[in-house]
Write a structure and sequence with these properties.
This protein is an alpha+beta fold. The chain has 22 helices and 16 strands. Strand 4 (463-470) and strand 5 form a beta hairpin. The model has no long low-confidence stretch (mean pLDDT 91).
Length: 649
Amino acid sequence: MRKLPVQRTPYGEEKIIFTSIVFIAAVLRLWNYWGWSFTHDELSAIVRLDFNSLAELWKNGIRPDGHPAFVQIFLWISTKIFGMTEAAIRFPFVIAGIGSVALLYFIAKRWFGLTTAYFSSLSLAILDFPILYSQIARPYAFGLFFCLLAVWCWTELLLGSNEKMYRKAILYGIATVLCMLTHYFAFFFALIVAITGFFFLKKETVKPYLISGIIAILIFLPHISLSLHQFGLAGVGDWLARPHIDFLWKFILYACNDSPLVVISFAIISLSALLMYHLEFSFSKLHIVCIAWFLLPFLAGYYYSVRVNPVLQYSTLLFSFPFLLLLVFSFIKESNKKFNNTLLASLSVILLFSTVVEGKFYSREYFGVFKEINHAATDLQKKYGADKMTTVLNTSTRDIFDFYFKQNNESVRFDFQAGDDSSFVPDMLKKIGQANTPYFMYGWSNFRSAYEIPEMIKRKYPYIIYDEKHFNSEITLFSKTGSCKRDTIFYSHLGFESPVPVHVRIDSVKTDSSFSHSGKHSLKVEPKDKFCFTFKTTVKQLLPDNNGCVNLSAWIYTKEKFNSQIVMDIGQGTTQNDWTAKLTPKFIKQTGAWQEVFVTFQLPSSAYPDDEIKLFIWNNNKNSFWLDDLTIASFADSKYDYYAPSFRK
């Protein structure tokens, strides 16, 4: 393969266009990058910076995480110098994002020509996916920059002139190890780049290329034991779902602003270029490289996520995304400059409209917030009195919610509950039952609040005084008194003292007076009773507008280890029924005492009004127990859409 032409500094018209693209990238990334709350991922790193030495940071701030060490060490140093504000912490990542646009420009120009460089770097500059991940202080912006830097050095070493080859090899080795130390998907991408290089080696580049690999390995050696430890952690697999077969297509749509306008524009430009320049077009090795470098990280991540542990997210494909842009625009040739410039100007308008106006990038919330939740909690405690309310805040760790309180020197009393803890719902049920204050304040962010929580609170505190919703976060002040009580749609209580309602089926012979939670009777369930209780009706009777949640609560007394499930079954009695189960052992923590079980089922979107809905207790472990005070209820306000688009106040 012939050597690529030597890169020259842009001048004249080229310099104007290049400068304009970088300027647009800078404006879009710098605009109000400090004006919104730190995300959960940012705070999870920031709260692990309070150490006096690098050794302490390594042991307690880096080892427990699932990322390589570079970004955490960088933050530890930079925050000691510049402080803990959003502006100071995020600024270097914004600069890395801007630098990535320039690097893609230079790579594209060397690989496919000037016009491809314009279109691909402009797209990276304006699409909201790369802008967003340039504005958060996580490994993505640095990872993208280092991956593109490694590719640029790789290009210079293998496809450039034979001058200063050993200097190029050293730079490529350093860029590669920076990828390895920043993010494990960037590490994998750098590995793919390195392997690809063997297909481009010439006699004079073999030795420098091997030296670059040795440099990267030697620098990374002290990190190997840490990486092996981190690979043994569950990481995001604890909460991240396994990807579906359509993940790649959904990612491409997401990366194109989820905008049909952008997708169609890219398709028209690419297809038009193929038609116009098909006589000049030749499929090269670098086209194959673009395809491989974009697809291989996805395929590896998808395979690992399905077979081993979920790790694949849209953000992890940021490092390979530029090469999809290169492929899309690589068919454009430079023989029709006037037409190309018109097309470039049109694309810039379309992308700016899509990101800023259509997508509302600068007002939309993309992550759960903390600053706003903390501010509201502070104001509500001051207004209504901290001693008159029970306050519970929920995320992964207490110090994440404490961050903004400490930053603002606010003293807010709250009980912390970790939303990812298996005992979260029963612990909250107990907390609510013990609360004796006039108000109950509940706030959460990032870890989706179980639907049971607001439903349990509303049983005792049915009035809502204040409610502030954000994307994947919310804070609500509940009260025992007020003027707007919730509307009941359906309510059925079974205490085994009166005739059983028509929509309930039980074995009435088993009604027993040995134990009861209230009244004189309960239902005695024996090991052979597989389905001791079944409630049956239609969807439209429980939830007339085909939307919302239904609650089931029951009191259970057992003398043995307990394990059963409460099940909701919806459908027409076919094999296609929607079936959901909730485990009860987490509620039954002792024997010889009455304990309450409370579960909330959300109606699936696939349900029809005339579908039959069944709620039943499945005694799958063949336990003996007593059942009493069973309640099924639905309410007009039991509608929760935590991921609905939300905009900054």
